[in-house]
Design a protein that fits this description.
195 residues, single chain, three-stranded antiparallel beta sheet
């Protein structure tokens, strides 16, 4: 439930692979500097390619451009690094505790931007022909009596749910005040143009 801003620190982490990736990047920078004066074009291109690929690996780790620039300036690999939030949003799942060992590829946090939500509606088979993309939808909730939220149809599933004889329709709903919550039940009214 914590709100985080893009760039906020999330994790302070130690990883031998991250340390070696930093060292690989520093070695690639050193090699590129040595190759600058070389007359062998392939050697210069190879050194530049090595710098770029090791830089890309750091970015895949979630290391920011600013952290990479600091690494270039200081020329010293850090044993622990901070991973920053890639987006502004709400933490909807936390899978890690302080001091916990995590495996490579583990999902530590799930952060979602709740300022835009999807509302899934079920439209009966006999009403399907009336639903179109970009159609205006009014949404109400018993939680906020008298308040109307506006959305637009963004996707109509291409198949029918046989048990209910209905099709699912996705509606994009702006939620700037974060009043609507994932998992809420709401009522939807779709406006059908006449004629």
């Amino acid at each position: 439930g914590t709100e985080v801003e893009k760039g906020a620190p999330l994790v302070w982490i130690y990883s031998p692979d991250l340390v070696s990736t930093q060292k690989e990047y520093l070695l690639a920078l050193e090699t590129r500097e040595k190759m600058k004066g070389s007359t062998v074009k392939e050697a210069v291109q190879g050194a530049e390619s090595l710098v770029q690929s090791s830089r890309d690996r750091l970015l895949l780790w979630g290391i920011t451009e600013e952290q990479i620039e600091e690494l270039e300036r200081e020329r010293q690999a850090k044993t622990h690094m901070i991973i920053y939030s890639p987006i502004t949003g709400t933490v909807i799942k936390k899978e890690v505790l302080k001091g916990q060992y995590v495996m490579e590829g583990s999902q530590l946090y799930t952060i979602a931007d709740l300022t835009n939500l999807w509302m899934m509606a079920e439209v009966y088979e006999y009403e399907m022909a009336l639903v179109k993309l970009d159609q205006k939808v009014e949404i109400t909730s018993p939680t906020y009596p008298g308040q109307v939220f506006l959305g637009k149809v963004s996707f109509i599933e291409p198949f029918l749910t046989e048990t209910t004889r209905s099709v699912k329709v996705r509606v994009d709903v702006p939620n700037p005040e974060l009043k609507l919550k994932p998992g809420m039940y709401v009522n939807a009214t779709m406006y059908i143009p006449l004629g």
